Amino acid sequence: MSSAAASPGPWITAVAVVLAAAALTFAPSLSGGFVWDDQLLIVANERVRDLAALPQVFGRSFWDVSIASADLRGGSYYRPLIAAAFAVEFQLFGLRAWGYHAVNVALHLACTLLVARWLFARLRADAPDAPPPVAAAALGAALFAMHPSRVESVAWISGSTDLWATLFSLAALGAWQRVRGLHGVVGTTLATLAAALCKESALVLPVLLAIERGRRPWRDLAGPSAAVAAVVAARLFLLGPVFHGEGEGLPGAAARVLSSVGHLVRLVLVPWPPTVMPAFVRFEASGPVAYDAWSVALGALFLTGAAALLLGSLRRPSLRPWARDLSILLVALAPAVNLAPLRLQTLVAPRFLYLPLLGVCALLARALSRVPPSQARAVTMACGAGLLLCASLVVRHTAAFASSADLWAWEVAINPDNHFALKALAIARTRERRPIEALQLSIRAFEAAGRTHARQARVDRALDVASRVSDLTPEADQETLVAVRSFLEAFAPSGRGPAVLSTRAVRLRLPLDEADRDGRIRHAWRIPYAIALARTLRYQESEAVLRAILRDQRRDALAWRNLLLVTACQERWSDALSACAPALRANPSDATARHLCDAIARAEALSRATPAEPLDALVHRSRLLLSIGARELVRRMVEPAAAQHPERADLALLLVRADLADGVLDRARARLDAQRARGSTPELEALGHELDRRSSP
Fold it and tell me: Is residue 193 domain-resident?
């Protein structure tokens, strides 16, 4: 299947059609928002806001951002060029998501163009006397552009790691292919260095270059190999060992790799249903990861067939071009098949195929170049139909990246036992101010983690449930808040027995052992526990927990925000005010902390003018505390005095305001009516109107 045309016109037209089709297919992604990791890497990341700090990206982990410690997630990732790209994009687009999506689409089109050139040049070099392989190379590039596995990399802003790494990898392959001599080696080396600084999967690039070596001397590989070695050395020096923890033993490792290969092969051949978590990790009841038997079998079958082809090519020269294409696929797949456990929520992901699909496209293009002219029309039509189907799947899946809520609702619909997606959807519902639904989703996530025997996830989801119960509970309901605090106390290293949460809305029982309490849970439970202590008025204990957290993690924004609150609730206004600067440095976009700091600054100034008369002083202090949200504390302070001095309307009004702020509307109305019976005032009537407004559906 080849074109007889010798002029460049048909080739330019074919490539233009492929690029236009890819652009139209991914155009809907331009209306998408910031989803998933975009929130941490861009929206809440102070480091992307200052170009002066750009050189610092080469000295830290990819996940070392303003509100996520590199010690807590992804600490082994070293991707300085991606962090730099986000910083530059932020200067151009700010928080306008369409700009980042436009960059992703442009990168994808650039990769598609380089793939088309690479395929065309390879096929032409293998058969220089044959007609130019226009259709074969174009259809191979079209598969690269519109395969459904592309969606996660293109429609998700954080997926640009694959786009940048592949762009530089293709640039290296192109320079290696077309430019001889020193200039070619230098160009290939620089592109290899850039690719390796974008994503770890590009570290296999020297091997891909060796496969494509042709007649080049082996010494030309020294530059690209040195570039990769330099990146690996820098990463080890800056971030330490790559992998931690115990392995699964040889049988478990073999099953892990074969299952990974099987899932990726399935994604190439049958990319349905479209999902970012096609191999969500489940566990056996006894603890080990449960690998799907079909995926292990398919992985073994694929690798056996690949080995047969590679061995056959040693004896049959006609198989060697096919073996070279297959080798491209196998080598590019190697970083994605869990040779060392990646320890993600999903064994593999569609984005893992962004570069490896190059090998599949090479095999397809080679097969199409061998199609007889008499069958070319029928084969082209079949390929066109397949590409249309791919494009429809891409458009359908791209719609899920419109927002975090859309993405995780899609994932939950595909797999109701995906406790990670249920938790993420709960977070999205919280941002949409739908707290009851968020709590229900958190409970479902806890139950799903139990069904999949994900012990650590079940602990995390239980903590989520406790935190949401606490957030939904007014401070007037101290019984429920004490139950949450008691539940969290069971997670302490000194705790014993199961953690039990029993309230009117939720009943949870979670067995815990010493291994649980000494693991990651040891840190995860402390923030919710500190909040529970504060909400049950145990401020000094809460402060001690928060300061212990900050000794370990100086940039924990949530710990700083709560430290502001507990010190202010103890009326240590100067101490609270001094904590504002580090709190806002930890997360400059934290509007809640900024509002709290403003309230503390006003309260600190007003606290210097406390009246001498005791009741007046009580009213003054209570107003200051109410301004920072200390509702139950104000009630505890004011209720005895209000009972002794019913004639003081200002005391009654403070209690009404506390109940109103706490959402205890029935109690607020009862207090308001009781005070009205003693006489009405304009302030009372204003509170009555506010209460009526809050009570209306």
Answer: yes
